[in-house]
Amino acid sequence: xxxxxxxxxxxxxxxxTLNFSFNGNRFQGHPGDTLASALLANGQIMMGRSFKxxxxxxxxxxxxxxxxxLVQLRKGSHQEPNTRATxxxxxxxxxxxxxxHRGSLExxxxxxxxxxxxxxxxxxxxxxxxxxxxxxxxxxxxIIRHSAGLGRISFEPDPDIYDKGFLHCDLLVIGGGxxxxxxxxxxxxxxxxxxxxxxxxxxxxRLNAETLEVDGISGSxxxxxxxxxxxxxxxxxxxxxxxxxxxxxxxxxxxLERVTDHLVTSNGKPRQILWRVYxxxxxxxAGATERPIAFGNNDRPGVMLAGAVRAYANRWGVSPGKRVAxxxxxxxxxxxxxxxxxxGVNISAVIDTRDGEPRAQIPGATIAMGGRxxxxxxxxxxxxxxxxxxxxxxxxxxxxxxxxxxxxxLTGHQRGRPAWREDISTFVPGQDLPAxxxxxxxxxxxxxxxxxxxxxxxxxDRALSDLGMTPKGGDIAKAEDEAANVTAFWHVSESKAxxxxxxxxxxxxxxxxxxxxxxxxxxxxxxxxxxxGMATDQGKTANMLALALMAECTGKTIPETGTxxxxxxxxxxxxxxxxxxSRGKDFRPYRLTPSHKWAEEQGAxxxxxxxxxxxxxxxxxxxxxxxxxxxxxxxxxxxxVGICDVTTLGKIDIQGRDAAEFLNKVYVNGFATLDVxxxxxxxxxxxxxxxxDDGTTARLGKNHxxxxxxxxxxxxxxxxxxxxxxxxxPDMDVHLISTTDGWAxxxxxxPNARKLLQKVVDSDHxxxxxxxxxxxxxxxxxxxGTTARLFRISFSGELAYEIAVPARYGDSLIRALMAAGEEFNxxxxxxxxxxxxxxxxxxxxxxxxxxxxxxxxxGMGRMVSKKKDCIGNVLSERPAxxxxxxxxxxxxKPVNKSEALASGAHFIARGKSAVMANDxxxxxxxxxxxxxxxxxxxxxxKSGQERMGEIxxxxxxxxxxxxxxxxxxxxxxxxEGDRLRV
Amino acid sequence: MIINHPHLGxxxxxxxxxxxxxxxxxxxxxxxxxxxDNFHDYLYLRDNPDGEHRELWYHEQGDRSWLVVTRNTLTHxxxxxxxxxxxxxxxxxxx
Lengths: 982, 95
Prior knowledge:
The structure holds two protein chains of two kinds.
Chain A: E1 18-22, E2 25-29, H1 35-41, E3 46-49, E4 56-58, E5 70-73, E6 80-84, E7 94-98, H2 112-115, H3 124-128, H4 135-147, E8 162-174, H5 178-189, E9 194-197, E10 213-214, E11 217-218, H6 219-232, E12 236-239, E13 242-247, E14 252-258, E15 272-284, E16 288-290, E17 303-305, H7 306-316, E18 323-328, H8 331-342, E19 346-352, E20 366-369, E21 373-377, E22 384-387, E23 392-394, E24 397-401, E25 404-406, E26 419-421, E27 426-428, E28 437-439, H9 449-466, E29 500-502, E30 507-508, H10 509-517, H11 523-530, H12 543-554, H13 558-561, H14 575-579, E31 591-592, H15 596-601, E32 605-609, E33 612-617, H16 626-639, E34 642-645, E35 650-655, H17 659-666, E36 679-685, E37 691-701, E38 704-709, H18 714-728, E39 735-738, E40 743-749, H19 753-758, E41 777-782, E42 786-791, E43 800-806, H20 810-820, E44 827-828, H21 831-841, E45 887-894, E46 906-908, E47 919-929, E48 934-942, E49 951-956, E50 961-968
Parallel strand pairs in A: 1-7, 8-9, 8-15, 9-12, 15-28, 17-24, 18-19, 18-24, 19-20, 31-33, 34-44
Antiparallel strand pairs in A: 1-2, 3-4, 5-6, 5-7, 10-11, 13-14, 14-15, 16-25, 21-22, 22-23, 26-27, 29-30, 32-33, 34-40, 35-38, 35-39, 36-37, 37-38, 40-43, 41-42, 42-43, 45-48, 45-50, 46-47, 46-49, 47-48, 49-50
Helix pairs in contact in A: 5-6, 5-9, 7-8, 10-12, 16-21
Chain B: E1 2-5, E2 9-12, E3 17-21, H1 35-44, E4 52-58, E5 66-72, E6 78-83, H2 84-94
Antiparallel strand pairs in B: 1-2, 3-4, 4-5, 5-6
């Protein structure tokens, strides 16, 4: 196929031909083309179907504001829906398909919806799918789901890499048009650290789309030279293909750089990079977006924005039609006529809504001053237009200009409100800009070239002066100010056919009037009722017209009608870019214990606890079910000796003259009286009286303690203690450091624990029961002189120790311990066996320390000292927390021993119905006890301590279980603690 | 947001953990006869101003300082950053 619409001129590289396909048809284009410009060059005007009515649509614009020309790019897992053809850079082999049609683009079965459009007006969903109620799930929702959504995802994992990065600068220039380049040059030449970013692949903005001159050369040539100069400066980072999409607090901006989207393959590079830009000052030079005029059938392929038609001609050497008509309310539309005419394109008519003399001589064109376009003809592309005065004019392209709206979006990201400017009939940035931001050029309503260049330069100078730098930007680039008069004109009221406002969401003039009649008049209501501006283009070409119409309906002015709030992002950001590298196993960091490698060698199954990977159990050959492994580990530990890596428990080193007193204040029980060389269990409350965490704290010296916390709370407890130290008791001499990672720690538990350890602990340290009794601790050496700490504490209920060595010896120690234990048939046990043994022993853990349980609930009420100040002490005495029938942690056994308990079950008295009013508490932890041979549980039940032996029901409505249980002591094994002290 | 740490200079707010109103530093006396009421008010009743707010931030991914940050809740402008410990010591001297 030939490029029948390619005309002379333009900035594409005609010496190279690129092959691409659209809906399987092969086309050719050139480097510098966008997919849209190449399709237009090939005469492919229709590019997609509209979302709701499946109307044929072509490109409206030549930029990121495009509502219609959304396509799917690439194939397979690389497929990306909803790509705007107007910004997709052409590359060799590009494959694109159109969206939103069943059947081919030309013959869409869903086009029938257009015939029913009168039933599909604004609020259709709210009105129609209300009744009958039973239809919702079976009929309506499936239908809506089937027709909803724009484009299709691949349903395969995204194979591309996305990165995140951080940048810093004195001045961020957003936009690389005349104002932006002028600002960046001025700041760059002054030595400031500058970042200039533009969403386009070619720097220059409208300079590349116009025939205006700067400094005596063509605007595009001047922009190219400016880009070269900027790129050569060490203090400037010039970023093409980079959209600054959001303005955040304190000069932070979000930017998306499309690194390899324009290449055939990424070649291992990130496809896109999400940048966080820290700027001291920013200049918004985002330009302006042209707005259309609403008239009958103004959505047909071939109806385009006049500035876009001019851009296709001047930048890409493409005329979207052979006979182009212009419909304008301003001088800018006339430039489209002049520029195209100069390139030999036949201009069939210029229709100007304003009265007066024609603004230019256009050979061969019908001129209609004070004229209006009422309707268009042609289904898949227009062939003629009809004027209000009855004339019909041949045209296969209609270039429409309703004036320009400054791209003020980023000025509103901190809730800034725009200001109305009557002279140019549009909103400009208000006074409440984000801190550090200024606006220059068309984005500021300064639409003419010389003024934009000057404003950019001045904005840079002001920013630099603010920062205490000396502006040395030199002269402002010279240019002429072009004519830019505009008279507000929003829609042709004589049109009888539907007139489109929001082409992507198919919102028409009629819909706005309906919303008005039904009293959805505030802009926020209007938007949600009609879906105006809620599509991927966020109504960039639509919102202004709709506002004007609503103002007309209500008799208010446009500024009185107001605007909706702009929020990031300016253009859509792919989910992959937001995720960056945080995918799969890199979703978040994970930590490995010092015995991890050894555990892997043993074939351990791992479980994530917080950020740690811990051994869950160690399957042996022949074991087919996890319970087999866990039961074996428990039995072997209780029968002889077992070893578990407990490195992940939080360790906080506490030192200072007031360390003991400090612990007295953070724990409910006393620590000042703890002897050196001893360990004590401690319970910590929050200030509201709820249990926060528990653990043991060892006193290694008069002013030196080592605290352990639960694995999950290591961070929060440390933070809390730093708060206490710095904010509550700053006079105390106490210092904290987290040593969780510093020490590898292993529990050695079971009747043979001491015998095993004696083979490892150096002989000058006696660990006999007399010399090292229960709850003793001390600094020792192991394996011939290696520093270690030994704590005689037990979570399992057995004779047990925890032994710690500097983390780098952790791997050696686990191997040494296992070797020493061989004669005792030592086992390694994981977190499951640990859990089984702690439930058998009746120790509270995470399931019990939920943040909603008090010391009294946990059976530790008497530990809360009334003689000293400690966190949580006062409010734990609140009457509401000290009722006679308070929940109490107790044990539970099934009456029928063969039944398995379930955690989460609620306790209900026998003979009562399972409703909230009869709820007496809940089961928090359950396990099968290998020692007892049946299921056991821990749970909270009202006045539990006084109800030993009582039978209640454990009702689990989720799993439909209702079984009888007996209330028992939570200490299922060795309630007297004899095993601990042998 | 960027918090200008008194020791470490400007740091991204992502490095910090937020706690709340700086009045949490003013913990009541446990032996006061109205201790229960005072603790209730201390813990549960806080101002939620639209405008200047003194609040506690913890530099968890940094030097573990608690900071008192004066921030405008409407604009997020930060006008003052102090070490909480310094503030706490000054508060004690005033008492």
